[in-house]
Amino acid sequence: MESIEQINYINSPIESVHKALTSEEGLGQVWTKKLKVKPEIGFINEFDFDEGYLTKFKIIALKENHQIVWECLDSDEEWIGTKVSFELAEKDNVTTVFLKHYKWRERTDFYRWCSYNWAMFLYSLKTYCENQKGLPNQERDF
């Protein structure tokens, strides 16, 4: 099994970063404006990237200001069954975000492209938390 791992450091309190990763407002500014999100274990978050299908993640772990884990139920075929976790830690008002997208069946070109896009997700999260302006899918030109 393969996994994508990314890390970023955000000059923002951990509470703000956690809220950005669990709320419609935050994820709407960071990832895609078309979504249904609720910070509740068992809830199935839905994300629409204008690709003809919804990406659905079930929330399987939610520890305030510490951990968020999603399990992919529907999306691109290579994502189904994978999990995404966000581990958060704070020191001196800087929040560390460790993102892991794991349980990939194999390392493919799509896997590599997703690794790049998860890095862009973390950049968008950083700009949103630090400057109140993220880069959701609908505003990206990269």
Automatic annotation (TrEMBL):
<comment type="similarity">
    <text>Belongs to the AHA1 family.</text>
</comment>
<dbReference type="Pfam" id="PF08327">
    <property type="entry name" value="AHSA1"/>
</dbReference>
<feature type="domain" description="Activator of Hsp90 ATPase homologue 1/2-like C-terminal">
    <location>
        <begin position="12"/>
        <end position="129"/>
    </location>
</feature>
<dbReference type="InterPro" id="IPR023393">
    <property type="entry name" value="START-like_dom_sf"/>
</dbReference>
<protein>
    <submittedName>
        <fullName>ATPase</fullName>
    </submittedName>
</protein>
<dbReference type="InterPro" id="IPR013538">
    <property type="entry name" value="ASHA1/2-like_C"/>
</dbReference>
